[in-house]
């Protein structure tokens, strides 16, 4: 429901409310007796979202226009979450993992050409033999029992005034607060213990003289055994519910805050010329919501301290400048028909975009915190998205002209150039969770420093955010369009 009220000739008010209800089918949802929260989708029937806006003009000629508004907006839960609940129930699918370097795994490790299991290629499923069940693992995805539908609260205020004929200057501020955002957390983990590992350079030979303490979910074994002939060794992960692997619970635990201020100059199409210039300074912070990576606790490094994930959002960009224009000059007109036919009626347009660098999350391969998730470990001492990637600038141009071929026929010629100046816009890897680089690694190997022994060490390059990719180079295309 929405209504707009014109209070007087200077003041207009808009009021509204929206009701959101999202339901799901229960088909294919199965509850796992080992985790009673599985096999269920949330139901939130009280999602009422009010919103209001106003516009007020001050003055008569070239008035100052003040606009503002507030709104609460609920989001839809993507269908991929229901797929995760249906597929990751710990009953219909398991993973068999064998580490040949482990003594007990080695005893059953298959040797060519003998297969580990014998199942027909047309069989609907292939269960592991009884003697291999201890090596299988099944993950579970579920919603928290107190899950709430994510929503955002948005407030905006802008001032705009026409300073010269058909040209206005404006300044605006926008605040967006994300509430009850989705974040997955693996709850099938024991309490972590802090362990320290030495830090080496990228070669793994030169010790950098520092150690890094990380909350680890696997303890060290300090005595000799078949699986650990040269202690200390990192024990296998012992989960509280050993029959299950990761239990990724979708919680309404994350939040976000965005502040953005924009200064703009806007000229309406006058005498064949239009342009808009805008500069934005903004900052976005969040707790690492998983809306784009459903089914993976991709950001939470320590499930017992999830609030430590707060940092720059993957969408954060502090500064952004955009200048766009359209120019349709007709310098000769009808008085000079030959020159007019050659040089009039061309349309020039373009967009110049310049932006500061975006946050980069420097991850560590090798799972140093030993939680079974190889995507949530970060470089020693760094928080999430704490590095800044390279900036970005591009100029896109377009040239076009139309020719009338009759009363109902028109021919358009186009020439377009993207990144016309061929700027080298470097970047690191783009993933579902934003910009990320994993040049740092954790190596599980016996390491001795003096009289101390360690079951692993970090290897860190001198420049962990060195660009490995680039955005598109200059691209030019030509087109012909026939309009009839």
How would you describe this protein?
This protein has 484 residues and is mainly beta. The protein has a single domain, classed as Maltoporin, Chain A. The chain has three helices and 30 strands. It has helices at 79-87, 103-108, 337-343; strands at 2-8, 11-20, 47-58, 64-74, 95-96, 136-137, 140-143, 151-164, 167-186, 193-201, 207-216, 220-221, 233-234, 247-270, 273-286, 311-312, 319-327, 346-355, 359-365, 387-388, 392-406, 409-418, 426-427, 429-431, 434-443, 447-449, 452-454, 457-460, 469-470, 475-483. It has a 15-stranded mixed sheet that branches. Strands 10, 11, 19, 20, 24, 25 and 28 form a seven-stranded mixed sheet that branches. The longest helix has 9 residues, at 79-87. The radius of gyration is 30 Å and the shape is elongated.
Helices and strands, with pairings:
Layout: E1 2-8, E2 11-20, E3 47-58, E4 64-74, H1 79-87, E5 95-96, H2 103-108, E6 136-137, E7 140-143, E8 151-164, E9 167-186, E10 193-201, E11 207-216, E12 220-221, E13 233-234, E14 247-270, E15 273-286, E16 311-312, E17 319-327, H3 337-343, E18 346-355, E19 359-365, E20 387-388, E21 392-406, E22 409-418, E23 426-427, E24 429-431, E25 434-443, E26 447-449, E27 452-454, E28 457-460, E29 469-470, E30 475-483
């Amino acid at each position: 429901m929405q209504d707009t009220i014109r209070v007087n000739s200077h003041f207009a008010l808009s009021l509204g409310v929206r009701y959101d209800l999202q339901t799901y089918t229960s088909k294919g949802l199965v509850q796992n007796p080992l985790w009673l929260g599985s096999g269920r989708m949330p139901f939130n029937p009280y999602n009422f979202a009010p919103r209001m806006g106003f516009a007020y003009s001050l003055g008569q000629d070239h008035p100052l226009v003040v606009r503002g508004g507030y709104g609460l907006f609920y989001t839809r839960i993507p269908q991929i979450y229901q797929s995760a609940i249906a597929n990751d129930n710990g009953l219909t699918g398991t993973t068999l993992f064998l580490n040949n370097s482990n003594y007990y795994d080695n005893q059953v490790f298959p040797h060519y050409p003998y297969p580990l299991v014998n199942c027909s290629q047309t069989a609907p499923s292939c269960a592991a033999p009884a003697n291999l069940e201890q090596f299988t693992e099944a993950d579970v995805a579920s919603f928290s029992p107190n899950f709430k539908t994510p929503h955002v609260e948005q407030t905006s205020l802008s001032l705009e005034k026409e300073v010269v004929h058909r040209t206005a200057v404006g300044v605006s501020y926008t605040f967006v607060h994300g509430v009850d955002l989705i974040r997955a957390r693996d709850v099938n983990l024991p309490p972590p213990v802090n362990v320290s590992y030495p830090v080496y350079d990228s070669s793994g030979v030169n010790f950098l003289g520092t150690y890094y303490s990380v909350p680890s979910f696997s303890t060290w074994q300090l005595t000799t055994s078949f699986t650990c002939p040269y202690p200390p060794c990192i024990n296998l992960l012992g989960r509280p519910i050993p029959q299950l692997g990761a239990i990724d619970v979708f919680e309404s635990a994350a939040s976000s805050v965005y502040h953005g201020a924009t200064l703009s100059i806007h000229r309406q199409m006058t005498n064949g010329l239009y342009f808009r210039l805008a500069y934005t300074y903004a900052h976005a912070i969040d707790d690492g919501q998983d809306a784009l990576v459903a089914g993976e606790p991709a950001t939470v490094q320590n499930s017992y301290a999830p609030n430590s994930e707060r940092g720059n959002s993957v969408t954060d960009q502090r500064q952004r400048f955009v200048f766009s224009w359209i120019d349709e000059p007709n310098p000769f007109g009808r008085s000079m028909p030959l020159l007019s036919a050659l040089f009039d009626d061309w349309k020039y347009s373009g967009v110049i975009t310049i932006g500061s660098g975006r946050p980069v999350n420097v991850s560590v391969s090798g799972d140093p915190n030993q939680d079974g998730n190889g995507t949530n470990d970060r470089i020693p001492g760094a928080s999430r998205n704490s590095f800044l990637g390279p900036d970005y600038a591009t100029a896109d141009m377009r040239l076009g002209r139309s020719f009338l071929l009759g009363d109902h026929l028109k021919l358009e010629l186009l020439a377009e150039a993207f990144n016309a100046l061929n700027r080298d816009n470097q970047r690191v890897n783009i993933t579902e969770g934003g910009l990320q680089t994993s040049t740092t690694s954790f190596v599980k190997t016996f390491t001795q420093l003096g009289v101390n022994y360690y079951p692993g060490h970090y290897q860190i390059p001198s420049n962990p955010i060195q660009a490995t990719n680039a955005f598109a180079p200059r691209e030019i295309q030509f087109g012909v369009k026939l309009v009839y």
